[in-house]
Amino acid sequence: LPLALALDAPPDIDPAGYLVSEKYDGVRALWDGAKLHFRSAAPIVAPAWFVARLPPVALDGELWMGRGAFESLSGAVRRKQPDDAEWRAMRYMIFEQPGGSGSFAARANRIEAIARQAAWPQLAAATQELVADRAALQRSLVEVVQGGAEGLVLHRADAAYETGRSGALLKLKPMNDADAIVIGHVAGRGKHAGRLGALRVRTAQGVEFLIGTGLSDVRRDDPPAIGSTITYIYRGT
Fold this sequence. Notes:
Blueprint: E1 4-8, E2 18-23, E3 27-31, E4 36-37, H1 48-52, E5 59-64, H2 70-77, H3 84-88, E6 91-96, H4 104-118, E7 123-125, H5 134-146, E8 151-156, E9 164-172, E10 176-187, E11 196-202, E12 208-211, H6 217-221, E13 229-234
Parallel strand pairs: 1-9, 6-7
Antiparallel strand pairs: 2-8, 3-4, 3-5, 5-6, 8-9, 10-11, 10-13, 11-12
């Protein structure tokens, strides 16, 4: 389905002009006014009583069981026969109005009004807040991550509704670093033909993966030796 998708925000982004909300670790769900769908457009089989409480307007949000409960949620929403107890533990957190007119700030106000009118705790508008400056944004990020959240979402308050990825919608997650052992060199292709394309590495936990971005031309011409330990920076896994 053509939905609004977020790009990664630079770590030092200035939040001026953005509304900021929590990035929920849930399952993206689109309500078209009659049926619930996954982002893939496949139907979500929800209990009839849950669907009956949703308003007859298009909504975009995430089904959510709370921080750190993604595994349980993911299993629950994919059952062919929904379990009432699992669905009563869910909330539908709304953060967009597909095709809605006006600015995002205006759409956010309408979403709040829709949630109030529904008067049902399981349908909630994602809290959208203005953040004073970069320092306040970083404090908010630290606070939500320490509480078990994935990070924050920044949406330009003046942005019209659009699908796909754009600078109007950004996700901000903490930057982390870790060590890994180089176990292989993968040859480059295209503009990197004849030199390193990626490092194959293994973590202390035994996870193997490729690092192919963030490498300078000098590093590609003279890569870290197999068996050496490198430090890499990442955002989410």
